[in-house]
Write a structure and sequence with these properties.
It contains 12 helices and 9 strands. By secondary structure, the protein is an alpha+beta fold. Strands 5, 6, 7, 8 and 9 form a 5-stranded antiparallel β-sheet that branches. A 4-stranded antiparallel β-sheet has the order 1-2-4-3. The longest helix has about 35 residues, at about 255-290. It is elongated.
Length: about 425
Amino acid sequence: MSVVLSVEEAGPCQKRLRVEVPAATVEAETARVASEYRGRAQLPGFRKGKVPLEIVRKRFGEEINQEVLDRLVPRYWRQAQAETEIDPLTPPTVEDVSLLARAPLTFTALVEVRPDFELGNLEEFEIPPLPGGVTDEELARSLEDMRRSIAPWVDVEVPAAQGLLVEARLAEVTDEEDEPQPVAFEVGDPNVWEELSLEVTGKTAGQKGAFTRQEPGEGDEEPRARAYTLEVTAVKERELPELDDELAAKLGKFESIDQLKSDMRARLEVAKQQEGRRMRERALLDQLRQRNPGDLPPGVVEAETRQMLTDYAENLGSRGIDPAKADIDWQELADQIQPQAEGRVHARLLLDAVAAKEAIEVPEDQFEATLASLARAQGTSAAQLRQALDRDGRLLELRAQLRRERALSRLLGDDDNPSALESSAPKEE
């Protein structure tokens, strides 16, 4: 006997199902719940478990009805889902619940479903080639960057210039006499006011200067000019270490500078190949989305946007910034990142559709190897990680993610390389 009274389109990627639970089932479940309440009920004048059933139903009627709904609605939603073969992307929103005595229980389930992509041409993508090896020039630049990153700043008696570090005392010219504040900055740094870099250029320790900075107004405020004075207290330059065996030993216990260079070249090679694969994947996914436009489930996009905001807040926290106290308009930020969230959802749904069309599945040995790798990274066992993911309902999502990665590799013609999809592997919590 069908439990689905009707199925109708409710909007983009949404379906509305009207579900009916037989009256006999409702009565049996209500009697079962009422009996359980009777066994626990403690009312004045009655021993525990001996309260007449009629009194229990009257006294705990609302609680009994809610328990019946909590048991029957999920059970019959699952039956309706199997009967209609609907593949929901989100849990159902239950509406219009009707629970009356000696009558069927009826409710409406509103769910989001996958868009129906036709998937035309899955070939002839314009994909950039994988990059070549690391050149001697790239290695030299990386070695120079490494030297600069570890080089100490030392005082020099030369005029301030591009790339030198200046220490100064800076004060704004106002009606009040503010104490100058110590500042230190690299001349020409793009994060430093251009007016400040220009003013100190050519000055040596002990010399003074002044400049004006034009600042835009906030909100309805007019732009205004702010005047500053400064005094250079020190000029410093980096003391670059020699590229020799001694430096190599300090950096990683390498026996020679040649070993250091070989190690750096290998790491640059890995990074270059990874970035190359990411560029190829982004190019392919951009073209795949352009070829297959369509409506996206709004609830899934909203969930992806919330997750991206959560990730951003956690990143702030990891850097010692309290997200609650940060001067951030979270709604404005959500509006800004929503297009990116839409792109991620669109790509995932398309890759799911490609995997279904191409009959792509994840071999069990690959799935187990991925679980083992994730478990090692998280300092746990594969069995414990599997149990945690299964408990949280994320085990299926991990398999779906791996399936998408295989679909993406198939489209790239690169089945042997791992994917760098814009998603993260589930973690044990």
